[in-house]
Structures are given as C-alpha cells and as structure tokens.
Amino acid sequence: MHQSACGLPVVTADHPGNAAGDLVVEGVNGFCSGLSAREFGEGILAGLDPHRIGVSDCRATAAAYDWGRIVEALEKVYQNI
Fold first, then answer.
1. Are 61 and 5 contacting, i.e. CB atoms less than 8 angstroms apart?
2. Half-sphere exposure of 65 (CA within 13 A, CB side)
C-alpha cells in the first residue's frame, strides 16, 4: 500500500534515478528532498507537520494509483486494441 493511502505524506529523494519522485506532488502528498542527511531530515520534519499536508490530500492522490482503477484502465486499453 502506498503510504499516501494511509494519509501519511511521502518523503523521497530528489534524484533522476528515483521514479517515486514523479508521483510526489510537492506539498500536497509529500516532499522530495535533496540527498544530504540534513535535507532529507527537513523533508521528514515537514511531513510530520499536520498543518503542511492534509490526510485527505494524501489519500486522494493515492486513490489515483489504486490497483483496481489501474486494472480497469488497462482492460479498457486492451479492449480497444
């Protein structure tokens, strides 16, 4: 289960090789931090602040990646081939 589905923001490293960063909407469902321990720690602290990101925002973002929705969309693609 994606952490956002639990209402928790995601904190991930901002790096070209990290595909998880493509799913994070900064300040909405999580934070992309730099690679240093200080920057990552700041991202974690920001994620722990309940005033910065709402539970409903995290869950709404995660709902778009629900496996049931993904399978339905993929089936529609296959049916149209």
1. no
2. 14
- Number of structural domains the chain divides into: 1
Measured between alpha carbons, how far is residue 14 from residues 38, 45, 66 in Å? 13, 16, 24
| Span 1-40, pLDDT tens digits | 455 567 788 899 999 999 888 888 888 888 999 999 999 9
Query: Quick one: tokens of 69?
Result: 């929705």
- Domain of residue 29 covers 3-79
Output the pTM of the full model: 0.65
The span from the CA of 23 to the CA of 3, in Å, is: 12
